[in-house]
Specification:
single chain; 954 residues; mainly beta; Jelly Rolls; Immunoglobulin-like; TIM Barrel; nine-stranded antiparallel beta sheet; seven-stranded antiparallel beta sheet; 69 strands; 10% helix; elongated; Bact_Beta-galactosidase; calcium; Galactose-bd-like_sf; hydrolase
């Protein structure tokens, strides 16, 4: 058995010293008391998280490493330490594994603790926990995996000697409603003492707990729960987080009843809490006896803010109507399951803030305390939730205990705006009014996926539901789950369309994406493979270890609090941009913006760029919700720049987003690179139904019947670009192929049969034909011009395609939008510049997890250098604006039986197209996700054909 180590004792001494140093040491009249005597001390019996565990003795009843006593790190999920069995929540309950674990740990307590009040606190145990101290039950068996519970063990301890802690943990609860609520859910099921365990040591005369309501106007009401017969007075003092005293707060009123004193007071000159400026304070509550001597001191971190849910209007925080830019988040890490750490909480919240989110929903259970602490300190609105999953719901008796445990633990977090009484029909309506019994702030209760009281939290609705014209259209509308992010679908895909409507709907309070991270678990029983239980857990914006998918950056742009109206830069550009302040609390004068006029290197240069001019943009005064315009300084040589980059940073210096705008057209920018065609002769001949052209030691072979490129050979190496250009969607016959020769070029032209392109509203017959034209120059440059009939509506691809073996591709470098691929309904989040990606075969959210994905569609192509291991690559310059590069074909994910996440790709391997498909979600086809998801592209009836012009360099 493990005894308390010197490190634990040193930790306790450190905590005492720290508590003394964080506040001025004070004495009673006899000069003997210090803060460490009068405050609550913490002694950890376990570690504090996934990276800090303490070994306890352990026995597992069945499964891996079962049937013998050994040791296990605490806190942990025992499966991740190689014990027991794995279950996903969708497994049949009658087939669930029912192992139990036995824990033992020896610890010592100080002799002088005899005069203290000692509690043992478990922050989370899965699922039923029986606790004994020195062979005696500490209290009733606790049921419920996600809730903090504690026992007073003062009378069970032996002071100055070793004590024995024993815990029996049943992975499956004896309460079937808990099993349905927690273990039949859509997430991984674990067992064990997975959150920290510690002793809480207070003076005998003590404050058991606090519940505080600190309003935006400085008004404070607090319920002080007291375990004392000597207490007579309460003193309130406000400190900043550095320990500096701000003010003594006069108690204006106090109502005393047995075990609880209700206090009213008023602070002055405070700064309010909101997610943009997360101002926090420490409220010190001192319990005094009749002589004014301090009995106990408690510090509670608070934020001053007021939450109002106004029926038929909206959700207000500090008088400002807010919109949630939120995401659902599980407490999860692949190697440790539900055992997390404060460092992981900080990492996750920082990523959410970086995506310009302002809210997070706890799905589907209360998180670690440190996650809520980080939401308080870095600034996120929170919906806190009791764990249930569909029907049947929690029974009322155990449900009331669970509600109490959640609210009592979390009541003082300013980040929490709402309570969720379970998930998706799992709510027990008999518990709806229980939250107010424990919540001094009386926050509203919601039913996620339901119309309840003042709110409508519909899940996974079609875009057209944003009409909000149903029989409950007066409800405050915010989906607690929408745009399900399985694999590469949802999240950023569709968000621009949804958010345009949601931002402008008066009764919309925003929404929450599903979900933050792919929850792949490292299977200790399967050689540590990552397991997502098929398509059940691959729903993240980021990968299992925080790898950023493309939607991460789309969300960052769409949810930018600085909204810049889309525009293009051309010769008529006047330097003006229209802007909207989509912050709730921040004036744009507190943000900064920098304009950079840049010039890029070519295919043989680096991915860095030269800054021709850089200057600050004056955003001036613009209050939240305001609209205005700003101007960028236009240097005299601005037209010689390749692009303008606008970078905005917030009041903390963090990037909000960088917008990019091409200045040169593709033809203008590429003019110098392809202008020198070389001198000399180009040889050509027609032989065996092939057109063979030789220039600069490069031999091109074309089909005499179709004009398609069949082979490129440079010296003795075959460059395997061939079988193109296939005109996509083209079924017309070739009318003729002609060859025109000259001293400086050879032209090969293929003309297709003419087809009627008569507009629908006229009887005039207009004939048009598609044309392919190759031009070969002496230096080996190969020009291609393809003219295609203009069409009003297009449901197939409009563009051209070539074959190029995937095994020959090592990577690509390109000038265009990147570094991530795009879909028609996920165009935002990229930046226009030179990028370079190595080949990978990642299937988003399923395998590889190397991002950006190499395969897919890339927008705004100017040029691309296709790299090959065998020097068989090439460079292509695109002279036509608004052209997409299609690079190979991504593998379809295996868990997409309805094909919503597997858009159809054109034939061939490398394509140049004018339109691309949208992508759906687990539950929706793209057509139901807004205008950009529509499968029809409206090109209009242009007088000119659609033209794609390229130059190939081998």
């Amino acid at each position: 058995m493990n005894k308390i180590s010197a490190n634990v004792i040193l930790s306790l001494i450190f905590i005492q010293v720290l508590m003394t140093s964080n506040s001025s040491a004070q004495s009673n009249k006899n000069g003997r008391s210090t803060w460490s005597d009068l405050s609550t001390e913490i002694q950890y019996l376990s570690g504090t998280g996934k990276d800090d565990m303490v070994n306890w003795d352990f026995y597992c009843s069945e499964g891996m490493k079962s049937g013998k006593w050994t040791t296990i790190g605490v806190p942990s999920c025992w499966e991740q330490q190689g014990f027991g069995h794995y279950n996903y929540g969708h497994d049949d309950l009658d087939k669930r594994y029912k192992e139990h674990g036995l824990y033992k740990y020896q610890f010592a307590v100080f002799e002088n603790w005899k005069s203290k009040d000692v509690k043992i606190v478990f922050e989370g145990v899965m699922t039923d926990a029986e606790v004994k101290i020195n062979g005696k039950l500490a209290g009733e068996i606790h049921q419920g995996a996600f809730y903090e519970f504690k026992y007073t063990i003062t009378d069970l301890l032996k002071y100055g000697v070793d004590n024995l802690l024993e815990v029996k943990v049943n992975k499956v609860s004896d309460n079937e409603s808990i099993n349905y609520a927690e273990r039949k859910a859509d997430f991984w099921i674990f067992g064990g003492i997975y959150r920290p365990v510690y002793l809480s040591v207070s003076p005998k005369e003590n404050i058991d707990r606090l519940a505080v309501d600190a309003k935006a106007d400085g008004a404070i009401t607090a319920d002080v729960f007291i375990d004392s017969k000597k207490a007579d007075k309460i003193k309130l003092t406000l400190f900043d987080l550095k320990g500096n005293k701000i003010q003594d707060i006069k108690v204006e009123d106090i109502q005393k009843e047995e075990g609880k004193w209700s206090v009213s007071a008023q602070a002055s000159n405070i700064r309010t809490w909101n997610p943009e400026q997360a101002n926090l304070y420490n409220l010190q509550v001192s319990l005094l006896d009749k002589r004014g001597e301090v009995l106990h001191v408690v510090k509670q971190r608070i934020g001053f803010r007021t939450v109002e849910v106004l029926e038929g209007d909206g959700i207000y925080v500090n008088g400002q109507r807010i919109k949630f830019k939120g995401v659902n988040r599980h407490s999860f890490y692949p190697k440790s399951g539900r055992t997390c750490s404060k460092e992981l909480s900080i990492e996750h919240v920082n990523m959410m803030k970086d995506m310009n989110m302002n809210a997070v929903r706890m799905s589907h259970y209360p998180p670690d305390v440190h996650f809520l602490d980080v939401c308080d300190s870095l600034g996120l609105f929170v919906i806190d939730e009791v764990c249930t999953w569909h029907s049947p719901h929690l029974d009322t008796e155990v449900g009331r205990k669970i509600v109490e445990e959640m609210v009592v633990r979390d009541v003082n977090h300013p980040s929490i705006l709402l309570w969720a009484n379970g998930n998706e029909t799992g709510w027990n309506t008999e518990l709806d009014d229980d939250y107010a019994l424990w919540d001094i702030q009386k926050r509203e209760v919601i039913h996620p996926w339901n119309i309840f009281r003042k709110t409508n939290t519909l899940h996974y609705f079609h875009y057209h539901a944003l009409a909000n014209d149903g029989y409950k259209k007066d409800k405050i509308f915010f989906p607690t789950e929408f745009l399900h992010g399985l694999y590469d679908g949802g999240h950023g895909a569709g968000l621009d369309d949804y958010w345009t409507q949601m931002w402008n709907m008066p009764l919309s309070a925003g929404g929450f994406l599903w979900d933050f991270a792919d929850e792949g678990v490292v299977r200790t029983d399967k050689n540590n493979v990552l397991d997502f239980d098929g398509n059940h857990a691959a729903d993240g914006i980021v990968g299992p270890y925080g790898e950023k998918e493309a939607s991460y950056f789309t969300i960052k742009e769409v949810w930018s609090p600085i909204y810049i109206e889309d525009r293009f830069i051309n010769d008529d550009f006047n330097g003006t941009f229209r802007i909207e302040n989509r912050y709730h609390y921040t004036n744009l004068k507190d943000c900064k913006m920098t304009a950079k006029w840049v010039r890029f290197n070519g295919p043989e240069g680096s991915t860095d760029f030269d800054i021709l001019s850089e200057n600050r943009v004056d955003l001036a005064q613009l209050a939240p919700g305001g609209k205005a315009a700003f101007n960028v300084n236009m240097p005299s040589n601005w037209k010689s720049s390749d692009a303008l980059h606008l970078t905005a940073t917030d009041l903390y210096g963090k990037e909000i987003f960088t917008w990019s705008y091409p200045i040169q057209s593709p033809a203008q920018l590429n003019q110098d690179a392809v202008s020198d065609k070389g001198k000399g002769k180009v040889k050509s001949e027609i032989k065996n139904s092939q057109i063979i052209v030789e220039a600069n030691n490069i031999v091109f072979t074309f089909s005499e019947k179709t004009g398609l490129l069949q082979e490129v050979k440079k010296g003795d190496k075959v460059i395997p670009l061939k079988n193109g250009p296939i005109i996509l969607g083209q079924n017309d016959k070739i009318e003729n192929v002609s060859v025109k020769t000259g001293n400086n070029m050879v032209e090969i032209t293929a003309v297709f049969e003419k087809k009627d392109k008569t507009p629908e509203w006229t009887t005039h017959v207009e004939l048009s034909s598609d044309i392919i034209k190759w031009t070969i120059y002496p230096n080996g440059l190969l020009d291609l011009s393809v003219e295609m009939k203009s069409e009003k509506r297009v449901t197939d691809y409009k563009g051209i395609s070539f074959s190029f073996p995937e095994e020959e591709v090592a990577g690509m470098k390109w000038l265009g939008d990147g570094p991530y691929r795009v879909w028609r309904n996920r165009m935002k989040g990229t930046k226009f510049q030179v990028w370079e990606n190595d080949y990978n075969n990642t299937v988003t959210g399923e395998s590889g997890f190397v991002y950006p994905e190499f395969k897919g569609f890339f927008s705004s192509l100017y040029w691309a250098k296709i790299k090959s291991e065998n020097n068989k690559g090439f460079t292509v310059f695109c002279h036509s604006p608004h052209t997409f590069l299609r690079m190979l074909t991504p593998e379809n994910p295996s868990g997409d039986p309805k094909g919503r996440l597997s858009p159809k790709f054109p034939e061939g391997d490398i394509s140049f197209v004018k339109n691309i498909p949208a992508i759906g979600t687990k539950f929706q086809q793209p057509d139901t996700m807004g205008p950009h998801g529509n499968s029809e592209n409206y090109f209009g009836n242009a007088d000119e054909p659609i033209v794609i012009k390229l130059t190939f360099e081998f």
